[in-house]
Amino acid sequence: MTPQGRTRGRVVGLLTTLTVLVTVAVGFAPAASAQGYVPISGSGSTWSFNALDQWRKNVQQFGIRINFSGTGSTDGRNQFKANQVDFAVSEIPYGLTDGGVKDEPPKDGNFAYMPIVAGGTSLMYNLNIGGKRVTNLRLSGDTVTKMFTRKITMWNDPAIAADNPALNLPARQILPVVRSDGSGSTAQFTSYLADQHAAVWDEFCAKAGRKTPCGFTSSYPAYAGIVGQVGSIGVANYVRQAQSDGAITYVEYSYAKNAGFPVAKLLNKSGYYIAPTAQAVAVGLLQAQIDPNDLTQKLQGVYNSTDSRTYPMSSYSYMILPTAVKGNFNELKGKTLSDFAYYFLCEGQQQAERLGFSPLPINLVTAGLKQVERIPGSTKKPTDISKCNNPTFSTNGSNTLAETAPRPADCDKVGSTVQCDAAGKSVTKKGGTTKTTGAAKPGETAPGAAEAAGTDPGAAGATGGDTAAEGSADGEGDAGTDGGSLSAIPVSVDLPQDDGTLLVVVAAVLMVVLVAGPPLAARLMRGKGGS
Amino acid sequence: MTQLTSAPGPVAVAEAPRRRVSLPGGIDRVFRTVLRGAGLTVLALMATVGVFLLIRGLGAFSSAGFGFVTTQAWQPDSGNFGIAAVLVGTLLIASVALVVAFPLATGMALYISEYAPRRVRGFFTSLIDLMAAVPSVVYGLFGSTLLQWKGTDIPKWLSIQFGWIPFLDVPEADPDNPLSPNGVYMTSTFWAGLVVGFMIMPFICSVMRESFTQAPQGEREGAFALGSTRWGMIRSVVLPFGRSGMIGGTMLGLGRALGETIAVAMIISPVFVIQPHILGSGANSVSALIAQQWGSASPFGLGALMAAGLALFMLTLVVNFAASAVIARSRSGQGSDA
């Protein structure tokens, strides 16, 4: 290339770069600052992270940049207190006493709570019977408490069997998985345990070296046999692994939904086992006491709600907003935050159910909108909430989602001999019926025979549980001795899949070796000969 | 004056290095000041970290007293806390890491310096450097979401075959029961140590490789001339020459292993008792404790974490100084100050 040509090339290159830069600047800069938005940051709850993250992505199109890191509610509150973030998200407010230490609110007092979404703290589990995943587990609060305090350590415990008359529970160890960081999920879960099953909970706390009465705590006591993991995604990820058969954890329903794992139905006060659906949560939260001044929640009413459609571990999640300019927070940020809040209080709520949460009812949305106006620099957008399309809104002020919630099926009632399957149809115990009566001990034959006839009174918790354990242990351990076991079939179907992957890998390796091997070997030999 | 600096005769040069008797002016002075400043900054930085930890942790030290070293629990807000469990956990994880990393690094360094053809040598050297450049959070992800789940059979086999060695026993496990959960073999000291071992391997390896390649050519050839095989030459020349490089590199790796945070925090399930069963679920380390708790700690709890951090800081400092002392004393490391 001649020098002239080179110069021309350089000029062309420079021009191209400039054009690209200008296009980028013109194309993107106005979008980012069209409304005068500035990036804001928040941190806190992983319980409501999935909802907030979706909303955050949705508002990017308006040029609103929200950085939210799910580091746990406790961390969120601490960072907000230290003015490190513009807002925090937490399940519990400031000022509560946890383990003898009061969580002091920010000294200046310039903050407000705003409910952002409702949801159910659900019990996600990984349990297989004979190679088939259980999807219709039911648990009473008492059983849950004992499972998470190591009073019940086996899945075939009579208490679990009594909750699940249709399941042949295996003699597998329960692996409770809890949060090892300071967490609002733990706070919600333990306040349910402490309120409803104080005796068992306090006994556990004392054994774990805490002061009693224990009350709720944000950091679950470390105890032998209980696995701690960081963050909601951490516990959900632990439970979803194939190796974690027998694990159970407490996590917001959306995480179980995303992982494609079932959650246990929890027994409510009126004797029905209820799943944490958006509607069951909405029904439960009708009984939540909301403090009219700061909107914080008291959940005893939810735990004790006598509505048969209630999911007892329902709660709201809150955003903690600044109400004065302080630290790094200025009016520009306030404007951005207020528009984000207007978005998710209104339109954002439509997505709550799909994400695994439950939308806010009308009274909390209106109260929340009032809180948004207190943010310095708030756009004070007049919001016509009838256009929000929130599924809870009605013309007469009642909660439509709760009104229209279906009554629980009869197979979800406590004490019946049947149990709903995943599709809601009632099923009875199957495994026990295939067991030949001749092979078992006299004590075991009786319930087995009763189940075969479909007349198990349902009270035979202890003996029924034992039978179930034997049945499925045989099914997995040595299927050969138990000719009638249905459970061996899915296991054998699974195996060829694994073999297939292995074969593909072996084939690929072989091919690489065949192609690359001979020349490499030749070169090596030549190299040796040369030296 | 200028004459003096360039005047010394050739005889004087042969033995002792030349000394400049006059101060150079201008730019040299500036340069020296800058360099001295850099050195002092590092010193000041370390001192500040130590003093900061000491001041912030003083409250915790005085409230816990001697119990700070002997208590296993970590509940600073109830006044019941100490570093016995986490410090032992840190040492256990670091030991597992060294057991993994040392043979791997030695083998790799010997292969690169002695056996590998030139082209492969360059490739492996950059591969090892790449391994050192991978962020620890990636190792943590690798360990916590893949390795420990797919590799459960390794600790299982170890505990069944060598369970009679006390620390390889897993008391909660019941290998005869096919329904017993595999969770007891996960989130353990073993997995954390294994992943940390992978992380420190490249550092140990490069120090070792450096010292192996410096083994004098004359002695190598002498060994060959006396009829030695290549392995014999390595044993009699390279390994003795590089021994202190090996020790020093290992100590440097140990220093890193003691302080490794995020990968450990991602893998372990924290427990606050001394967990001597390295294959069993539950482990802890000082740095993982700090990473997991500082966000949700009360002001006093933060002080207690600072105190724990100071303990780790001292331990790492001692290990690193010991490492540099060993390297400096060695034959291969005489020239270097590492």
TrEMBL record, chain A:
Transmembrane stretches in the record are 502-522
Any one of the GO CC terms: ATP-binding cassette (ABC) transporter complex
Q: Where is the PBP domain?
A: 30-346
Q: Where does the record place Low complexity bias?
A: 422-472
Which GO BP terms, alphabetically?
phosphate ion transmembrane transport
What are the protein's GO molecular function terms?
phosphate ion binding
Q: Which SUPFAM superfamilies match?
A: Periplasmic binding protein-like II (SSF53850)
Is DNA-binding among the key words of this record? Answer: no
Q: According to the UniProt record, where is the region Disordered? A: 375-485
Q: Which residue windows does the record flag with biased composition (Polar residues)?
A: 386-402
Going by the UniProt record, its keywords in alphabetical order are: Membrane, Phosphate transport, Transmembrane, Transmembrane helix, Transport
NCBIfam families, A to Z: 3a0107s03
Q: Which family does it belong to?
A: Belongs to the PstS family.
What is the name of the protein in this document?
Answer: Phosphate ABC transporter substrate-binding protein, PhoT family (TC 3.A.1.7.1)
Recorded source organism is: Actinokineospora terrae
High-level lineage: Bacteria, Bacillati, Actinomycetota, Actinomycetes, Pseudonocardiales
UniProtKB/TrEMBL annotation, chain B:
- UniProt KW keywords: Cell membrane, Membrane, Phosphate transport, Transmembrane, Transmembrane helix, Transport
Biological-process GO terms, alphabetical = phosphate ion transport
From the record, give the transmembrane residue ranges. Answer: 38-61, 81-111, 123-142, 184-204, 261-280, 300-323
* Domain (ABC transmembrane type-1): residue spans on this chain: 87-323
The annotated topology with respect to the bilayer is: Multi-pass membrane protein
Q: Name one GO molecular function term.
A: phosphate transmembrane transporter activity
Question: What is the official name of this protein in its record?
Answer: Phosphate transport system permease protein
State the function annotated in the UniProt record.
Answer: Part of the binding-protein-dependent transport system for phosphate; probably responsible for the translocation of the substrate across the membrane.
Chief subcellular location:
membrane
On the tree of life, the source organism's domain of life is Bacteria
UniProt-listed InterPro entries: MetI-like, MetI-like_sf, Phosphate_PstC, Phosphate_Transport_Permease
Q: Tell me where in or outside the cell this protein is found.
A: Cell membrane
Family assignment?
Belongs to the binding-protein-dependent transport system permease family. CysTW subfamily.
Matches recorded under NCBIfam families: phosphate_pstC (TIGR02138)
- Give the species this sequence originates from: Actinokineospora terrae
Which Gene Ontology cellular component terms are annotated?
A: plasma membrane
Q: Which CDD domains match?
A: TM_PBP2
Q: Does the keyword Transmembrane helix apply?
A: yes
Keyword Transmembrane recorded: yes
